[in-house]
Specification:
The chain has about 200 residues and is mainly α. The chain is elongated and about 55 Å long. α3 runs antiparallel to α4 and α8 crosses α10.
Length: about 200
Protein backbone atom coordinates (compact mmCIF):
# COMPACT_ATOMS: atom_id res chain seq x y z
CA UNK A 1 0.00 0.00 0.00
CA UNK A 2 1.38 3.46 -0.92
CA UNK A 3 0.90 6.17 1.66
CA UNK A 4 0.80 9.66 0.24
CA UNK A 5 3.02 12.45 1.47
CA UNK A 6 0.09 14.26 3.15
CA UNK A 7 -0.58 11.30 5.45
CA UNK A 8 3.10 11.13 6.36
CA UNK A 9 3.00 14.65 7.78
CA UNK A 10 1.35 13.19 10.90
CA UNK A 11 3.96 10.48 11.40
CA UNK A 12 6.59 10.63 14.13
CA UNK A 13 10.12 11.66 13.17
CA UNK A 14 11.35 8.17 13.94
CA UNK A 15 8.78 6.53 11.62
CA UNK A 16 9.78 8.93 8.86
CA UNK A 17 13.46 8.17 9.47
CA UNK A 18 12.76 4.46 8.98
CA UNK A 19 11.42 5.26 5.52
CA UNK A 20 14.40 7.51 4.82
CA UNK A 21 16.72 4.59 5.62
CA UNK A 22 14.90 2.74 2.84
CA UNK A 23 15.82 5.63 0.50
CA UNK A 24 12.37 7.25 0.45
CA UNK A 25 13.69 10.70 -0.43
CA UNK A 26 10.28 12.44 -0.18
CA UNK A 27 10.69 12.11 3.57
CA UNK A 28 13.47 14.71 3.53
CA UNK A 29 11.00 17.41 2.51
CA UNK A 30 8.75 16.62 5.46
CA UNK A 31 11.66 16.58 7.92
CA UNK A 32 13.03 19.79 6.40
CA UNK A 33 9.72 21.64 6.80
CA UNK A 34 9.13 20.20 10.26
CA UNK A 35 12.54 21.15 11.70
CA UNK A 36 13.66 24.15 9.64
CA UNK A 37 12.69 26.82 12.23
CA UNK A 38 14.29 24.87 15.07
CA UNK A 39 17.51 24.40 13.10
CA UNK A 40 17.62 28.04 11.99
CA UNK A 41 17.06 29.36 15.54
CA UNK A 42 19.66 27.02 16.99
CA UNK A 43 22.18 27.80 14.24
CA UNK A 44 21.76 31.54 14.79
CA UNK A 45 22.51 31.10 18.49
CA UNK A 46 25.81 29.46 17.52
CA UNK A 47 26.72 32.02 14.87
CA UNK A 48 24.58 35.06 14.00
CA UNK A 49 25.00 34.96 10.20
CA UNK A 50 21.60 34.00 8.80
CA UNK A 51 22.82 33.24 5.28
CA UNK A 52 25.64 31.03 6.56
CA UNK A 53 23.25 29.12 8.83
CA UNK A 54 20.72 28.69 6.00
CA UNK A 55 23.51 27.38 3.74
CA UNK A 56 24.51 24.86 6.41
CA UNK A 57 20.91 23.68 6.79
CA UNK A 58 20.74 23.19 3.00
CA UNK A 59 24.07 21.34 3.08
CA UNK A 60 22.79 19.11 5.88
CA UNK A 61 19.77 17.97 3.87
CA UNK A 62 21.82 17.54 0.70
CA UNK A 63 24.18 15.29 2.68
CA UNK A 64 21.23 13.29 3.98
CA UNK A 65 19.97 12.93 0.42
CA UNK A 66 23.33 11.78 -0.92
CA UNK A 67 24.37 9.63 2.03
CA UNK A 68 24.47 5.88 1.56
CA UNK A 69 25.43 5.29 5.20
CA UNK A 70 22.53 6.66 7.21
CA UNK A 71 22.03 4.80 10.47
CA UNK A 72 19.17 4.44 12.91
CA UNK A 73 18.66 7.20 15.43
CA UNK A 74 16.55 7.30 18.58
CA UNK A 75 15.84 11.00 18.19
CA UNK A 76 15.81 12.64 14.76
CA UNK A 77 15.67 16.17 16.21
CA UNK A 78 18.85 15.55 18.19
CA UNK A 79 20.55 14.01 15.16
CA UNK A 80 19.73 17.08 13.04
CA UNK A 81 20.82 19.58 15.70
CA UNK A 82 24.13 17.79 16.22
CA UNK A 83 24.74 17.50 12.47
CA UNK A 84 24.02 21.21 11.97
CA UNK A 85 26.33 22.13 14.85
CA UNK A 86 29.14 20.05 13.32
CA UNK A 87 28.58 21.58 9.87
CA UNK A 88 28.69 25.10 11.30
CA UNK A 89 31.90 24.39 13.21
CA UNK A 90 33.49 22.94 10.04
CA UNK A 91 32.29 25.86 7.92
CA UNK A 92 33.54 28.42 10.43
CA UNK A 93 36.93 26.74 10.74
CA UNK A 94 37.31 26.79 6.95
CA UNK A 95 36.39 30.48 6.81
CA UNK A 96 38.54 31.43 9.79
CA UNK A 97 41.39 28.98 10.12
CA UNK A 98 41.69 29.37 13.87
CA UNK A 99 37.95 29.46 14.58
CA UNK A 100 37.02 27.31 17.54
CA UNK A 101 33.50 26.59 18.77
CA UNK A 102 34.56 27.80 22.22
CA UNK A 103 35.37 31.20 20.73
CA UNK A 104 32.08 31.44 18.86
CA UNK A 105 29.52 33.34 20.87
CA UNK A 106 26.39 31.33 21.70
CA UNK A 107 23.82 34.04 22.35
CA UNK A 108 20.27 34.26 23.51
CA UNK A 109 18.96 37.58 22.27
CA UNK A 110 15.81 39.14 23.65
CA UNK A 111 15.48 42.88 23.25
CA UNK A 112 14.13 45.18 25.95
CA UNK A 113 10.88 45.88 24.09
CA UNK A 114 10.09 42.14 23.90
CA UNK A 115 10.77 41.75 27.62
CA UNK A 116 8.69 44.83 28.43
CA UNK A 117 5.77 43.45 26.40
CA UNK A 118 6.06 40.14 28.24
CA UNK A 119 6.04 41.70 31.71
CA UNK A 120 4.15 44.93 31.06
CA UNK A 121 2.29 44.82 34.38
CA UNK A 122 5.07 43.53 36.60
CA UNK A 123 8.20 45.67 36.96
CA UNK A 124 9.80 43.31 39.46
CA UNK A 125 9.64 40.34 37.05
CA UNK A 126 10.83 42.55 34.18
CA UNK A 127 13.90 43.61 36.18
CA UNK A 128 14.55 40.03 37.25
CA UNK A 129 14.37 38.87 33.61
CA UNK A 130 16.84 41.54 32.55
CA UNK A 131 19.21 40.53 35.36
CA UNK A 132 18.90 36.88 34.36
CA UNK A 133 19.65 37.64 30.71
CA UNK A 134 22.65 39.75 31.71
CA UNK A 135 23.91 36.94 33.98
CA UNK A 136 23.33 34.38 31.20
CA UNK A 137 25.67 36.29 28.89
CA UNK A 138 28.42 36.07 31.53
CA UNK A 139 28.42 32.25 31.39
CA UNK A 140 31.01 30.34 29.33
CA UNK A 141 29.83 29.40 25.83
CA UNK A 142 29.28 25.69 26.56
CA UNK A 143 27.19 26.51 29.64
CA UNK A 144 25.06 29.01 27.67
CA UNK A 145 24.44 26.38 25.01
CA UNK A 146 23.52 23.72 27.59
CA UNK A 147 21.09 26.09 29.34
CA UNK A 148 19.49 26.98 25.99
CA UNK A 149 19.05 23.33 24.99
CA UNK A 150 17.74 22.31 28.42
CA UNK A 151 15.43 25.18 29.35
CA UNK A 152 14.52 26.92 26.09
CA UNK A 153 14.28 23.84 23.89
CA UNK A 154 13.36 21.44 26.71
CA UNK A 155 15.72 18.66 25.68
CA UNK A 156 16.58 15.84 28.08
CA UNK A 157 20.17 15.55 29.32
CA UNK A 158 20.83 12.51 27.14
CA UNK A 159 20.02 14.48 23.96
CA UNK A 160 22.03 17.49 25.12
CA UNK A 161 24.99 15.17 25.67
CA UNK A 162 24.61 13.78 22.16
CA UNK A 163 24.45 17.23 20.54
CA UNK A 164 27.45 18.53 22.50
CA UNK A 165 29.31 15.24 22.07
CA UNK A 166 29.83 14.70 25.80
CA UNK A 167 28.82 12.02 28.33
CA UNK A 168 25.25 12.24 29.72
CA UNK A 169 26.58 12.87 33.25
CA UNK A 170 28.76 15.69 31.87
CA UNK A 171 25.67 17.38 30.42
CA UNK A 172 23.98 17.24 33.85
CA UNK A 173 27.15 18.67 35.46
CA UNK A 174 27.37 21.40 32.82
CA UNK A 175 23.80 22.57 33.43
CA UNK A 176 24.27 22.41 37.22
CA UNK A 177 27.47 24.47 37.03
CA UNK A 178 25.67 27.01 34.83
CA UNK A 179 22.76 27.29 37.29
CA UNK A 180 25.14 27.65 40.22
CA UNK A 181 27.03 30.41 38.42
CA UNK A 182 23.79 32.18 37.43
CA UNK A 183 22.66 32.17 41.07
CA UNK A 184 26.06 33.44 42.16
CA UNK A 185 26.11 36.28 39.58
CA UNK A 186 22.56 37.36 40.40
CA UNK A 187 23.26 37.29 44.13
CA UNK A 188 26.36 39.41 43.54
CA UNK A 189 24.27 41.88 41.48
CA UNK A 190 21.85 42.23 44.41
CA UNK A 191 24.71 42.81 46.88
CA UNK A 192 26.26 45.49 44.62
CA UNK A 193 22.85 47.14 44.27
CA UNK A 194 22.42 47.25 48.06
CA UNK A 195 25.85 48.92 48.43
CA UNK A 196 25.01 51.47 45.73
CA UNK A 197 21.70 52.35 47.39
CA UNK A 198 23.38 52.63 50.80
CA UNK A 199 25.90 55.21 49.49
Amino acid sequence: MIINCKDRNNWTDESLWELLLKRDIEILEILYRRHYDLLLNYGLKIYPDKELVKDCIQDLFVKLHLSRKLSNTQCVKTYLLKALRNLLVDKLSSIKETEDIEKVSFNLTIDNSALSALFQKNDEELNLSKQLLKAYHQLPVNQREAIYLRYIKGLPYKEIAEILDIAPQSSINLVQRALTKLRSIMQLEKIILIFLIAR
